[in-house]
Amino acid sequence: MSTRMNRAGVATLLAVICCAMAAPLSGGAQGGVTSLSGRLIRYEDLEQEAIPIGGSLEAAMVSLDYDVDEMPLVYSEDFDGDGVPDYLMGSPEGRLCGTAGCPYVFIDGASLDTLGEFFGTVAVLDGKVNQFPVIQTVSRRDFETTNLNTFVFDGEVYRLVSHALLGSAGTDAWIETLAPER
User: Fold this and answer.
1) Residue-wise pLDDT tens digits, 123-168
2) What distance in Å separates the CA atoms of residue 138 and residue 146, rounded to the nearest whole number?
3) 54 vs 87: CA distance, rounded Å
4) Cβ within 8 Å of residue 60, ≥6 positions away
5) Measured between alpha carbons, how far is 106 from 117 in angstroms, rounded to an integer?
């Protein structure tokens, strides 16, 4: 099934891809990287929250290594503006986290369906495509390089639309731009 994006969605998508590709491997923060706007959501931002069971929520909890009776760790916010909080769920007690980051599952609050799976440090950008925010993740690849992945919502699920490698200066600039107070 193909999903058509409106003109504003395509413009946002192109701007995000340009920003994501601005500093591959060079480690520099030149180009569009410093023009990003959004916020980082780190593992320590997650809180235990009772959320209703339904949709693909149970399968998401199993994939993140939850026991049957555990309350999920989530960051909740109404990302799509429908009046129902959506959830970014992480693994319990950081069980599946490592030096490259942590796994996350994005759950639509209205349907409780999984809309995306991400790994690393997650940033929710201010730009939206199909009413959901653009998501970027960084995850350590090795000592000198970091993966920068950009995802957009295609109307059904989040899809990877851009991948770049950042040097340490590029990664630092990305984090500083999205979380200057940390």
Assistant:
1) 999 999 999 999 999 887 777 788 899 999 999 999 999 999 888 7
2) 6
3) 13
4) 89, 105, 107, 114
5) 6
Distance CA 16, CA 8 (A): 12
Stretch 37-42: mean pLDDT: 85
Least confident of 10-19, 59-68, 80-89, 117-126: 10-19
CA 171 to CA 79: how far, in whole Å? 25
Q: Is the pTM of this model over 0.85?
A: no
Averaged pLDDT of the chain: 78
Average pLDDT over residues 20-38: 47
Q: Helices then strands (H, E): number in the chain?
A: 3, 9
> How far apart are the C-alpha atoms of 113 and 6, rounded to whole Å?
24
Give the residue among 100, 99, 132, 136 at the shortest CA–CA distance from 118. Answer: 136
Instruction: Give the whole-angstrom CA distance, residue 74 versus residue 122.
Output: 13
**Boundaries of every domain in the chain:** 7-178
